[in-house]
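Hi there,

I know you've been waiting on this one. I reran it after we fixed the sequence typo, so this is the corrected version. Both the input and the resulting structure follow.
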Amino acid sequence: MSLGIVIKAPEGIVLAAESRLTLAAENTVTHEKLQVSFDNATKLLAFQQGDNFRPVGVVTYGQAAIGTRTAASFVPEFEARIGDDSLDTEKFSNELASFYKEQWDASMPKDWASPPMTFVVGGYDQGAAYGRVYQIEIPQRPDPVELNKGDGNFSITFGGQTEHMDRLLRGFDRRLPEMVSKTLNLTPTKRQEMEAALSVLQMPVPIQAMPLQDCVDLAVFFIRTTIAAQSLTVGTRGVGGPIDVATVTRRRGLEFIQRKRVRVDDK
């Protein structure tokens, strides 16, 4: 479930996530399988270093919990483990991956075959011109993989329930090439030709030229549109609740642009 977005752009990195937590449950009397949702989960993680945030943020999506706990619930333990040591983005990603893999191994089935708990890390190294982005998939691929590597390589990383975002950004459902290929029994060469032809349908988003504000607006647009689309269609409504947004920039580090707060709603 979920929808998480990380945009690496020239002016900085944008991280955005909604707040719906969907869990599988069972009625203890009837043994009916249930699906329950909560709309205040934290999926955009920030980490303290002394009195400030580290210049790195993390978006998580996919598997919602390790045992009975969310990824966000482990943040204090991870902060205590790494202390106030300065870590570049790669070292931070490795420490994060190692920590959550340990939690997973201690609580989850050894033969796990469902989607992973995915982390996308975005941060700035001291003195670097541009940010770096890493992806971690627990438990299948715990070693961090750098995405969009290189100073001039800017793009969007997203995951979770992406069916509506796929159609907006790619121009078609991501299942389409495989479905057409099987239906028409295409050769590998013909499939490549089809995918090349479909590439012209992609939304022309010039990330390499977009100001940071436009990147924030783009991420929020995709999440709000997904929430609205799911509310009007039949399917799993796994995206919802408040939207958290943060930026990481070369000069200002991590800053929350929008962050839900604990509150009382008087109705």
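Quick highlight: The chain is about 30% helix and 30% strand.

Best,
R. S.
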